[in-house]
C-alpha cells in the first residue's frame, strides 16, 4: 500500500471512532433522561425506546461504521424529550386557575364582572 492509502485509512478510522464516541455519549445522555419518562407520557416513552432500539438494531439507513444516522436519531429524541420536560415543568409551575397561555403582548385581559 502506498503512503496516501495509509493516510486515508487512518483518517477513516479516526472519523469512524469519533462518530462511535459521539453516538455512545448521546446514548448515555438519553439513558440518563429515562427518569423523566413517567411524567412525559406515551410520546416520551415512544421517543426514548424508539431511539434506543434504532441505535441497537443492526438494520440502519447507513452502514454501521458510519454512526451519523444513529447520532441524528439520538439527538432528535433528546431534543424532543427536553421539550416535553420543559412543557411538563411549566405546567407544574402554573397556579390553579391561571390561564394556559400568557396574554398577548399589548393586550391586557380584564376580569368579567
Automatic annotation (TrEMBL):
Keywords noted in UniProt: Membrane, Transmembrane, Transmembrane helix
Transmembrane spans: 6-28, 35-54, 66-85
Residue span of region Disordered: 91-113
Name of the featured protein: DUF1232 domain-containing protein
